[in-house]
Design brief:
The complex is a heterodimer.
Chain A: H1 2-12, E1 19-21, H2 22-32, E2 37-40, H3 47-54, E3 60-63, H4 67-81, E4 85-89, H5 93-97, H6 99-107, E5 112-118, H7 134-138, E6 144-147, H8 154-166, E7 172-178, H9 179-183, E8 185-187, H10 207-219, E9 223-227, H11 229-233, H12 236-249, E10 253-255, E11 270-273, H13 280-288, E12 291-295, H14 301-304, E13 315-320, E14 334-337, H15 340-353, H16 362-373, H17 388-399, E15 404-408, H18 412-420, E16 429-430, H19 441-451, E17 456-462, H20 463-468, H21 473-478, E18 484-489, H22 494-503, H23 519-525, E19 529-533, H24 539-548, E20 553-558, H25 591-594
Parallel strand pairs in A: 2-3, 2-4, 4-5, 5-7, 6-7, 9-10, 9-12, 10-11, 12-13, 13-14, 15-16, 15-17, 17-18, 18-20, 19-20
Antiparallel strand pairs in A: 1-8
Helix pairs in contact in A: 2-3, 2-8, 4-6, 4-19, 10-15, 12-15, 13-16, 17-18, 17-24
Chain B: E1 27-36, H1 41-51, E2 58-65, E3 70-79, H2 81-92, E4 97-102, E5 109-120, H3 123-135, E6 139-143, E7 147-154, H4 156-166, E8 171-176, E9 180-183
Antiparallel strand pairs in B: 1-3, 1-4, 2-3, 5-7, 5-8, 5-9, 6-7
Classes of the chains: A alpha/beta, B alpha+beta.
């Protein structure tokens, strides 16, 4: 018998000492991967796994109200902790409902592991009840996915899933587990026995290229550092190194929506976010610079505007862990494939060894200060109505010193939050950047709150986005998560309305809702607190009431309905063609601009 | 068959080693991709091409290493130099992809395609088709009193040329395998 066991172990990789059911393997593997929270929704095809979850107490299962909510909550959990998020959903509709969340995580490079149930292997392809081709559907919206047809490789695949999700450029992965594989017994491969065989992404950069980059860095007169979400993903040390680089070189720095917080917003080198709704100074500096250091960002179209006229006179250095991001949208002079932390370490070491030289022009900072003088974020104040910008400013003022995490939905409020809130640390700002998923913020705030039970978690929302995943109120109440839903209610799809005003002759086609709920009563229906405020003079007290309340709050902030979000680079225009405010003479947005999104 | 010891890595050539990135001329490239022979791998590769709007002019795939469980996909694609570099970078970052070779840029290579032609002809045309087949070194693999089936191996251009000649002689059906290619030496 012993000999037989040994043969199995060494010849077939089957360890008879670790025989358990597929469902047990799932729970065991999650435990070994140090998972403490799983977001999920049960169903027929995952019942064996739910049975195992019932029998243990180390993994907390959070019952969401819709599978999309589970994925976004896992994303929020992951972004605020740096650990992978885990979701567990059933076959068919459970899997298809998770597609939006998976795509969102793929676009924003968030490591999440989604486990889906599947109909038994012998029924696959028969159009069985709640059958869907999950790996087929999710193939383009995951970093990788697996259909596990044998219990003996289930453990290995779950460990591989965690490895693939968190190494290289992070992203969502999915493991589809048929019900018979969950019931069957097989051998479990322990985490310590797992070694990745095929996926080995390059993380150590080419040092010759770094030397070239250092030289360009030293010789630049009008430089800019443009950082992104890659710095957050590379870990806290990456942010620390970025800060050292900025502080020692005194270069100006801007960041994408995804990278806010990697460099503290309170420091003088910080120019604010760049891009379509970024600050005037950041965009002008991007356009006029002679050296651009792109660190962990990917030249997204929201950042570049018109690519033909993007920063025409600069030497561009790009660090990215994903080789396919380099030269995809913008051709760069020096592209370095590597992990941000490792690359910055080498870069700083080399630069310091060469004497920390810098030839930045004094006139460059003068120019930047002149651009700052324009005060691009100014807006017309009002005494009678709450301006959305004012609401965010007050929220920022009253919460900035707290241990605070902010999530957002998607639209005008998201841009205003990015413009008016300052982040001092990474992983404090969770927003759907690449995919722009309305309905992201509320479930994400739930995930964040679960990871940080004692912190203040605020979801800055618009009423339309928020309603898209409002069912998660049930989750917030069930787990008594004191998430603050700060809803800027303009009774419109604000950003859509703004585009219709600017591009479609003010024909507001279906961009408002005639049937909004009374948010206070909605809160009360769930037994939580609702606050409504429409008076700028009472806003501060109302916000304080929200913060002080121990439990979930829906804050219905009735704001100016037709406010536009400025500054703005109209689509199809370059960085130096920003619209600063509504009072500016109307700019012609050509047909070529109107076809862009 | 022997196991091919292949390492996965993206360092060898990356998107920053562009030839002339600003060139907007369309180029035809033959890519050889070594992948794990597992279910869904071909769907991943062609899904990448269709999802991102790249061209596939020809595609062949078969297992080449049974012990190592590897398949070789040969894709002929066309695009501007920067699109070709994107295709390679996107392929290289897929989990089951071990190696991507651009046979068009990595020195000389040989390309072959196999095709079967069914020609219906009578009298002089029938004789002529046989004569031309001889010139092209095509083999007759099946014949009836009214038809020939030829097998021809060669470059895609040679196959095109033979097909053009057979059309007036009574070409009824053609089956092509797509390009298989190897680097020289």
């Amino acid at each position: 018998m012993l000999l037989y066991k040994k043969t199995l172990k060494y010849k077939l990789g089957i360890d008879m000492n670790n025989i358990m059911s597929g469902a047990q393997i799932v729970v065991e593997a999650l435990l070994e991967q140090k998972v403490d929270t799983v977001f999920g929704y049960p169903g027929g095809a995952v019942l064996p796994i739910y049975d195992e979850i019932f029998k243990q107490s180390k993994i907390k299962h959070v019952l969401v109200r819709h599978e999309q909510g589970a994925i976004h909550a896992a994303e929020g959990y992951s972004r605020s902790t740096g650990k992978p998020g885990v979701a567990l959903v059933t076959s068919g509709p459970g899997a298809t409902n998770s597609v939006t969340g998976l795509t969102d995580a793929l676009m924003d490079s968030i490591p999440i592991i989604v486990l889906t149930g599947q109909v038994p292997t012998f029924m696959i392809g028969n159009d069985a009840f709640q059958e869907a081709d999950t790996v087929g559907i999710t193939r383009p919206c995951t970093k990788h996915n697996w259909l596990v047809k044998d219990t003996n490789i289930l453990g290995k695949i779950i460990h591989e899933a965690f490895y693939v999700s968190t190494n290289g450029r992070p992203g969502p992965v999915l493991v589809d587990i048929p019900k018979d594989v969950q019931f069957a017994t097989g051998s479990y491969l322990k985490k310590k026995d797992f070694s990745p065989k095929r996926y080995k992404p390059k993380t150590v950069p080419n040092s010759d290229l770094i030397l070239k980059a250092v030289k360009a860095f030293e010789n630049s007169k009008n430089p800019i550092i443009y950082s992104g979400g890659g710095v957050v993903n590379s870990g806290d040390n990456a942010s620390k190194l970025l800060r050292e680089l900025v502080n020692e070189s005194n270069f100006p720095i801007t960041s994408t929506l995804m990278g806010l917080g990697c460099y503290p917003a309170s420091k003088k080198n910080w120019m604010g976010m760049l891009g379509m709704h970024g600050t005037y100074e950041a965009n002008m500096a991007m356009h006029d610079c002679d050296f651009m250091f792109c660190i962990g960002a990917r030249f997204d179209d929201r950042i570049t505007g018109k690519t033909d006229e993007f920063s025409p006179n600069s030497t561009k250095v790009h660090i990215d862990i994903d080789p396919s991001s380099i030269n995809k949208n913008i051709l760069v002079d020096i592209g370095i494939v590597g992990d941000i932390k490792t690359t910055l370490q080498t870069f700083l070491k080399l630069w310091r060894k060469r004497g920390s030289k810098s030839s930045i022009n004094k006139s460059w900072w003068k120019k930047i200060d002149d651009w700052r003088e324009i005060n691009c974020l100014k807006y017309n104040k009002s005494k009678s109505a709450i301006k959305p910008q004012y609401a965010i400013q007050r929220l920022e003022e009253l919460t900035k010193n707290a241990d605070r995490y902010v999530t957002t939905e998607v639209g005008q409020h998201q841009m205003w939050a990015a413009q008016f809130m300052g982040f001092e640390e990474p992983k404090r700002w969770m927003t759907s950047g690449g995919l722009g998923t309305m309905g992201y913020g509320f479930p994400a705030s739930i995930g964040v709150q679960l990871a940080h039970p004692k912190s203040l978690v605020i979801n800055v929302a618009g009423e339309a986005s928020w309603l898209m995943n409002m069912q998660e109120l049930g989750t917030a109440v069930q787990y008594n998560l004191p998430v603050k839903q700060f809803i800027l209610n303009n009774e419109r799809l604000g950003m859509v309305r703004q585009w219709q005003e600017l591009l479609h002759g003010g024909r507001y086609s279906h961009s408002w809702s005639d049937a909004l709920p009374d948010f206070v009563k909605l809160a009360e229906a769930y037994g939580i607190k609702g606050i409504c405020c429409d008076d700028p003079n009472k806003l501060d007290d109302a916000i304080k009431e929200m913060i002080d309340y121990n439990g979930p709050v829906i804050f219905d902030c009735l704001v100016e309905k037709h406010e536009n979000c400025f500054p703005m680079i109209p689509s199809g225009k370059a960085h130096n063609e920003m619209i600063l405010n509504a009072n500016e003479p109307e700019q012609e947005i050509g047909k070529s601009g109107a076809v862009l999104v | 068959m022997q196991k091919l010891f292949l390492k996965k890595g993206v360092s060898r050539k990356s998107a920053y080693n562009l030839r002339n990135p600003k060139d907007d001329k369309f180029e035809r490239h033959t890519l050889a991709i070594l992948v794990d022979n597992e279910s869904g791998v071909l769907a991943r590769v062609i899904g990448l091409f269709s999802g991102r709007g790249y061209n596939i002019d020809s595609l062949t795939v078969a297992e080449v290493d049974h012990t190592g469980n590897l398949s070789r996909i040969t894709i002929v694609t066309s695009g501007t130099p920067s699109v070709i570099e994107q295709i390679k970078a996107q392929l290289e970052r897929m989990i089951p992809v071990h190696d991507v070779h651009d046979l068009t840029t990595e020195g000389a290579s040989v390309e072959r395609e196999l095709a079967l032609f069914k020609v219906f002809a009578k009298g002089e045309k029938r004789v002529e088709s046989l004569r031309l087949a001889d010139v092209f070194r095509a083999k007759v693999v099946d014949s009836t009193l009214v038809s020939f089936t030829f097998e021809l191996t060669g470059t895609p251009e040679k196959i095109d040329a033979f097909a053009d000649l057979m059309v007036p002689l009574g070409l009824k059906e053609i089956a092509r395998t797509g390009v298989a290619a190897l680097s020289r030496g």
